[in-house]
Specification:
Helices cover about 40% and strands about 15% of the residues. The protein is α/β, with parallel strands linked by helices. It has a single domain, classed as Alpha-Beta Barrel (TIM Barrel). The strands form 2 sheets. Strands 3-2-1-11-10-9-8-5-4 form a 9-stranded parallel beta sheet. The chain has a two-stranded antiparallel sheet with strand order 6-7. A hairpin with a 4-residue loop joins strand 6 and strand 7.
């Protein structure tokens, strides 16, 4: 099992001027600790599950470009980009740029979007969910076409690209891995099976739901005729190794259970990540242990 880190809050001591230096320190510590990946949420307002709407929130791809410059090995992505936030052609160009400048370390994390408040607040269209899923599937097709180097016009129901030129192409070939977030059984996991290289489920839901979702994904793969093992199975969870008694042992046990359920890459939010010590502990005691799972 591999471990990733999601940075979902920037409300740290020192105020706005300290966000950049502290974020660089976190990124370097995660890189040195052996984390496989580093993720930001693609939100413009802080979400209610993490903090107050008035808390600081950075634009995701500017942040990832900054993180690429201060790290060497760790892979980078959004968990996940809402399909309504960027036109597909611009999104593919953006992720390609991240991949080139990072030396081939980009993911495209994407989903159907859900946060109506920030969309309406910033003047972005927020169509019904069924339409957003149509846009998501079109975006995935456009991404595959552009990364394959096809330049002929793309005429979809929602998007029309007269000349989908993408130069330079990504370093990662055939393309940066595409991760689709969410566990919807009829649409989301079907899109994973058809278009993606990775899924992302919620570890918070428990082991049984994860096993069930992965079984559904496996059935979609069988219908499409794609090897289930070709898809990286990731999950988002939390590990607290400092303030909870027996935190390291508990963390390793959680990773073991998720690995047995089929998860290969656990992406973590880490309480008090800005203090750096939790990352050092995870790197020293958890990363080597779970690599055996």
């Amino acid at each position: 099992m591999r471990l990733g880190l999601q940075v979902s809050s920037f409300d740290w001591p020192g105020g706005t001027r300290k966000i950049g230096p502290r974020l660089a320190e976190i990124a370097r510590a995660a890189d040195e600790a052996g984390f496989a990946s580093l993720w930001t949420m693609d939100h413009f307002f802080q979400i209610e599950y993490v903090g107050d709407v008035d808390e600081p929130m950075l634009e995701a791809y500017t942040t990832l470009g900054y993180l690429a410059a201060v790290t060497r090995r760790i892979h980078l992505g959004t968990l996940v980009t809402g399909v309504i936030y960027r036109h597909p052609g611009v999104l593919v160009k953006t992720v390609t740029t991240l991949d080139v400048l990072s030396g081939g370390r980009a993911y495209l994390g994407i989903g159907a979007a859900w946060n109506e408040r920030e969309a309406v607040g910033l003047g972005l269209p927020f169509p019904p969910l069924s339409v957003r899923f149509e846009q998501l599937e079109e975006t995935l097709r456009i991404a595959h076409a552009m990364w394959a180097g096809r330049r002929r016009p793309i005429e979809g129901r929602h998007f029309r690209l007269a000349e989908p030129l993408n130069r330079p192409q990504s370093i990662t070939r055939p393309h940066p891995p595409i991760l689709i977030g969410g566990g919807g059984e009829k649409k989301t996991l079907r899109l994973v099976a058809q278009y993606a290289d990775a899924c992302n489920l919620f570890a918070y839901d428990g082991i049984a739901p994860i096993r069930h979702k992965l079984d559904v994904l496996k059935r979609h793969c069988e219908v499409i005729g794609r090897p289930y093992e070709a898809i990286e199975r990731t999950a988002l969870g939390t590990l607290n190794v400092v303030t909870r008694r027996g935190g390291v042992k508990r963390a390793i046990g959680t990773c073991r259970e998720l690995a047995r359920a089929g998860i290969q890459h656990l992406i973590l939010t880490v309480p008090d990540v800005h203090e750096i010590e939790p990352l050092e502990i995870i790197g020293r005691e958890v990363v080597p242990a779970v690599a055996e799972f």
